[in-house]
Design brief:
Structural class: little secondary structure
Number of strands: 0
Radius of gyration: 12 Å
Largest sheet: none
Helix content: 10-25%
Shape: flat
Length: about 60
């Protein structure tokens, strides 16, 4: 199960919500009501400025099995 820090790093307006449909990921659809996607390049929310590429890259601990 992904942690909050390795979900969509290009978007800062994801909100944690224990009873939401995306609870299995610890997240629910973004505050603007856009579709949830896992990887930053696939993120569908265009209402929020992207963070620098370095902020979107997974850390070493997130890429290890």
């Amino acid at each position: 199960m992904p942690s909050a820090r390795n979900t969509c790093a290009s978007c800062q307006h994801w909100l944690r919500h224990d009873t939401a449909p995306m609870n299995q990921h610890g997240m629910h659809p973004c505050a603007h009501g856009m579709r949830w996607t896992y990887l930053p390049p696939q993120h569908s929310c265009r209402q929020w400025a992207k963070r620098p590429a370095a902020a979107q890259a997974p850390t070493a601990s997130e890429t290890q099995p």
